[in-house]
Amino acid sequence: MSAAIRPQPGIMEIALYQGGASAIAGIENPLKLSSNENPFGPSPKAVEAMQAVVAGLHRYPSTDHAPLRAAIAEMHGLEAERIIIGVGSDEVLTLLAMAFAGPGDEVLYPEHGFSLYRIFALSAGATPVVAPETDRVVDVDAMLARVTPATRLVYLANPANPTGTLLDNTDLTRLADGLPGECLLVLDGAYADFVPGYDGGASLVKTRENVVMTRTFSKIYGLGGLRVGWGYAPQHVINVLNRIRGPFNMSSLALAGAEAAVRDQAFVDHCRQVNIEQRARLAGGLAQLGIPSDESHANFIMVRLADEAEAVAADTHLKSRGILVRLVKGYGFPEALRITVGRPEDVTRVLDAMAEFRGVS
Asked: What is the spatial distance between Cα 254 and Cα 244, in angstroms, rounded to a whole number?
């Protein structure tokens, strides 16, 4: 790097993000259970809506995303003017760091939190601060104990990734009320759609000036390749974020597909119900093999082996059977594997492979 051309402080401390593996050498069409994708793909109505706009792709998309914001507001009982659309929820989370954190500020998150939280902080020149968890669950008291006058953002995924554990509304409210007014609590709800009856934190956003909620179309909606997410926040936060959001950040395809997807709640309900059933089957079957996991509220489970060596051996065995899962050493769990919940036949393949690994016929 040239001595005269230097990036902003913190950027060179960022390790490149590593996504879930998608290929196995020598095996065609492996079963990919490494990235928490919807095994059923997107809603057919979303596919149809995207096909309908292809001929008009020579036109620029809208800059205000009004139809999609209106659809999200209608489906979730929110105010459309307090919704922002991003290139995945990652963009909204990034914009929050850009807008509200910088050199001299701190960004707080749990020790096993999503790895991008550290990247968001360092990209903004802020200092990442980590709070310990208790038994793989976010500890509200530990989070509040790490808050200082310099804390500007608190990122919290609920349900959490990679553990799948969930804080209830009582704990979320206690965390929100314990933060100073100049600190934003950002509730990352990438997996909130998998929890029946959970609003992702919307009720907290409606009643407080320092709480933000983000959601994504990449998980239960099966649109990970489209890159669409959204945030719901107090109006003063939305007004700031829209000043730094790219005017044409969303494509016409993305806007059309997401609008049709969010309106097809029958498809969402089906995916949620299958996930609940197969998640219990996967966790229960592995527990019978002596491979435990915490109760998950997402579309994956994180199983714990005896140690790192056994986790690597299990991962290697699954790959030999054409199955991709995720080692989560980078999240502080060298002994664990994160396994996406698939279709019934996918769960059968995993259980059969792990029984074979355990030497159970």
From this structure: 20
Structural domains in the chain, CATH included, are 20-41+266-358 (3.90.1150.10), 44-263 (3.40.640.10)
For helices 308-320 and 344-358, give the axis angle rounded to 10 degrees.
120
The DSSP secondary-structure symbol of 330 reads G
Helix 116-123 to helix 88-100 angle (10° resolution) is 40
Nearest to 258 by CA among 228, 215, 214: 228
* Cβ-based burial of 203 (10 A; exposed 0-12, middle 13-18, buried ≥19): middle
Q: How far apart are CA 95 and CA 215, in angstroms?
A: 14
Peptide linkage before 159 cis (omega within 30 of 0): yes
With contact defined as beta carbons under 8 Å apart, do 215 and 192 qualify? yes
The dihedral sign for the CA sequence 303, 33, 133, 115: positive
User: 115-171: per-residue pLDDT in tens?
Assistant: 899 999 999 999 999 999 999 999 999 999 999 999 999 999 999 999 999 999 999
Q: Helix or strand or coil: residue 103? A: coil
Which pTM does this prediction carry?
Answer: 0.91
| 300 neighbors 324 (Cβ within 8 angstroms) | no
Nearest alpha carbon to residue 317 among 345, 357, 268 = 357
Q: Which two tokens stand for residue 140?
A: 């509200």
Would you state the structure tokens that stand for residue 1, as one six-digit string? 């790097």
- Strand, helix or coil at 38? coil
- Cα 233 vs. chain centroid, distance in angstroms? 18
Smallest CA-to-CA distance from 337 within 325, 346, 349 is with: 325
C-alpha of 160 from chain center:
8
Reduce the DSSP state of residue 312 to 3 states and report it: helix
Number of residues in the chain:
361
